[in-house]
Amino acid sequence: MIDTLTSGALVLEGGGMRGAFSAGVTDFFLDEVLMFDHIYGVSIGACHACSYISQQRGRAYRIVADYINDPRYMSYRKLIFSGNLFSPEFIYHTIPDRLDLFDYDAFRAYKGDFEVVMTDCKTGEAAYRRIRDLKTEVDYVRASASLPGLSRIVKAGGGEYLDGGMTDSIPVKKAAADGCQKIVAVLTREAGYVKEPSMAYRMTRIMHPLHPRLSESVKNRHIMYNETLDYIDEKESSGEIFVLRPPKGSLHVDRLERDRAKLDELYRIGYETAKERGAELRRYLAAETAKEGILL
After folding, report:
1. CA–CA distance, 296 with 292 (Å, rounded to integer)
2. What pTM does this model have?
3. Measured distance CA(242)–CA(291) in Å, rounded
4. Which of helix, strand or coil describes residue 78?
5. First to last CA, the chain
6. CB 194, CB 226: distance < 8 Å
7. Number of C-beta neighbours around residue 248 at 10 A
8. Segment 219-257, tens digit of pLDDT
9. Which of 190, 254, 194 is nearest to 222 (CA)?
10. Cα distance between residue 22 and residue 28, in whole Å
11. Per-residue 3-state assignment (H helix, E strand, C coil) for 170-221
12. CB of 214 closer than 8 Å to CB of 159
């Protein structure tokens, strides 16, 4: 078990099945006995962070790859009849409690801070939740990964939430605001990617008429996302943020990809990318910070 935490923030972007890349990266970190004292997860990144924190190597990837073609995991029939493309009961209870056991005790033993990003359906703004006990707080992780149009609104702690990627897809600014001087961002898009406007907000408006600010968040998501990428590029160029992302020319993987061979390859790419830059990452984490608040 990894007992010593590395000072710094690990930020895991979402991206659906593209998260296989992040699963490869975090497995390399476990092999290298590297555990951060601040972890931020969005959508599938939040889900993968849980197995990283519990130090169950390979589990994050297995949960996706072994079940993505299982109708108990994902089914368009379920979407029609229940409003959820992905089965909450199967993913967040049956798998961790019966099929691929989650180590809740190891998760609770983590001494750092783990936060998931959600979108508050009432305000249309990002909401953050620190998770201490996954057994009792799993609905917040579920909310972070619940896509509008493909999931019902998740009610937790008196709030109503959906996918955090709509409002803070890559929470590097949140990490900086929390005082993290070293930030490692694991992205699931290649360098140079630009998000285009989407008409998905129209469907969100129809499906959630009582939450008009939610559809506005979906409408403006590309603006928020591209501004965050510009910020990351600027800070990466100055050596203030360390970024791991799929190399240019990597195979194309859809958000709802079901091709096991593609997922296996993307996981391998994630592991190898982190391995190739492992020494560089260690130097970045060991270097003295030039000045406090450099990212703010």
Report:
1. 9
2. 0.95
3. 17
4. helix
5. 34
6. yes
7. 9
8. 999 999 999 999 999 999 999 999 999 999 888 999 999
9. 194
10. 10
11. CCHHHHHHCCCCCEEEECCCCCCCCCCCCCHHHHHHHHCCCCHHHHHHHHCH
12. no
